[in-house]
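A student in our group prepared the protein record below, which I am reviewing. This is what I was given:
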Amino acid sequence: MNETARAIWTAVTSVMASWHQWKLFIERAVAVSHDSLHVIVGVLLFLALCLVLRRPISSWRPWL
């Protein structure tokens, strides 16, 4: 593996580890299960995309 690829891989694994630690912190701080947290975040992201794209909730475009 060359040095650039190794640096990119190190950065990616570092970000993934940080995300995992934050997710565990949020799960324990609000006492929400792992699966419920994914559903809540997914719905919030969908609603945010509807607002950003200025589409109604019934539209299929925010899912893309």
User: Anything to note?
Assistant: The chain has a mean pLDDT of 85. Residues 3-30 form the longest helix (28 residues). The helical segments are 3-30, 34-53.
